[in-house]
Structure to design on (170 residues):
């Protein structure tokens, strides 16, 4: 099921520790299939070096596992909340990169200091209110603070980065 998307999500996940954006099993990444609405997401607690397309988890838009042998990420409900409330999003990355996490720990937005930042994020990266993991709370913060940008810092946590994707015409 969704073999191509599982391969893509897995390949991108394996890049996160190489680029020092996560450590141990923290962070996650998901991709949504535009046709079915199903989401491929990192399995919970699996180390990045052990990830394979076969270890990815596929869930429907309600969070029910429809393919895979592992439990989905503890942030699945938040990913789904974002997908269900921001229709043009088809990919989400949640990391604990040192610099973004430092801003999040301080409760500060990332200001626009370079033209590249302005081009990519359309302004500063906002910092949300604090939210606990495990349910939709983080997703609610991302939707609330992230309507005009591609990223939201989660106060005292990390960063969610997502892409707006052009939808295929019907």
């Amino acid at each position: 099921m969704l073999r191509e998307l599982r391969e893509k999500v897995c390949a991108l996940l394996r890049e996160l520790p190489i680029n020092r954006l996560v450590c141990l099993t923290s962070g996650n990444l998901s991709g949504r299939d535009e046709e079915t609405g199903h989401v491929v997401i990192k399995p919970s607690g699996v180390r990045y070096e052990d990830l394979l397309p076969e270890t990815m988890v596929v869930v429907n838009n309600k969070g029910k596992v429809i393919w895979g042998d592992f439990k989905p990420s503890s942030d699945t409900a938040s990913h789904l909340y974002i997908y269900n409330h921001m229709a043009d999003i088809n990919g989400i990355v949640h990391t604990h990169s040192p610099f973004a996490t430092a801003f999040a720990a301080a409760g500060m937005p990332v200001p626009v200091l370079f033209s590249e930042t302005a081009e990519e994020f359309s302004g500063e990266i906002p910092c949300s209110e604090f939210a606990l993991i495990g349910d939709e709370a983080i997703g609610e913060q991302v939707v609330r603070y992230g309507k005009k940008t591609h990223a939201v810092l989660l106060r005292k946590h990390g960063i969610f980065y997502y892409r707006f994707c052009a939808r295929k015409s019907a």
In short: Confidence is low (pLDDT under 50) at residues 166-170. The longest strand covers residues 89-95.
